[in-house]
# Entry
Amino acid sequence: MSVRAWNQPGFLDAMRQEGDPPTDRVVEQFASREGRNAVKQVLKNLIDSHGAPPPLTGELASYFNQLPDIPGDQQRAIISGQTLFEEYGPEIMLVLACYSLPECYVARKGVQVLSRTGLLQQRPNRRLFQTAQMLIEMLSADGLAPNGIGCRTARKIRMLHGLNRFLIRTDPSWDPSFDLPINQEDLAGTFTAFTAVILDGLRKLRIDVPDERAHAYLGAWQAIGQLLGLRPELIPATVYEAFELKDVIARRQFFASDEGTAITRALLKWLAAQSPFYLPRLPGATVRFMLGNENADKLQIPNAPLEAALLNAGIVVGHAIDEVLGGVQRRRLFRRFGMNLLKGFIAAELQPHGPQIRVSSHLRRRWSLPEA
# Structure
């Protein structure tokens, strides 16, 4: 068995100095002619576009429009992977909020980029909103078809990364010891947060995902990784490799930081507002259960023994009910919290007249969500 690139000496160190060369070249070209303030304005316009065609011009527009779609021979495998999201979307949103994002916050160097705007401390729901919208657009039926909304979203994220990377690395206040912002290793870590971590979170909720479905789900993300500019050497070929890459990056990058703690504290406060009023510490207990004590301690997540006991009991009871009665429809004790997150987004909690999360009518019916 060949040694994967991430296990080769010095490879991941080199990846911390590499961003997305094709995108970075185009942004550099634009910035050298139009200036730094123009890059900032393009970034703002792109963030505010909310699903509309991106407001790009010149070489940025040409580059965006020339980014390739996913080849047709991969579409069947992608569709198979998307069915897992269709079936367990609300549960995946729960895992996203209580596992995937907090695990990203444990990465001391990577979290520096997230903390620079201050928005995650002030409005942590915005990060959840944006990430949930990304998942829905990419993993919905036909989302990754040629020129599908998921492909356009991936291109937009790739462009956002390039613009942000330029602005941060050219800012004199950026500490070079944190390496190149939004580098390939950090992108690979984010990839595992949406693959290995999601699958592990479902397992911890006692939701059984057969190996073939887990591999199909990874297959959809392999295609997404290509769209986002992740190097092929950093895209795991199997679910086992995805977990291996996750663990390798964790050993290298997971350390306590004030920034990670502050962002996590803001996230837990917002999640508590979505929880039953008599269980305000349940989100913290859920995050600690998902992350494990070592990583939860790095984020200074308080212990909540009562809520932790209730959480474990709920998981065991839910699994037992399913075993006795059969079928996945009766094992939904944790769907309500994921549904509350989605309904909160649909209610446009971000702003009274702000962007609402976009969910297809098919998924709304599948997840029993109200129509827009």
Observations:
- The first helix runs from residue 11 to 15.
- The mean pLDDT is 86.
- The chain has 19 helices and no strands.
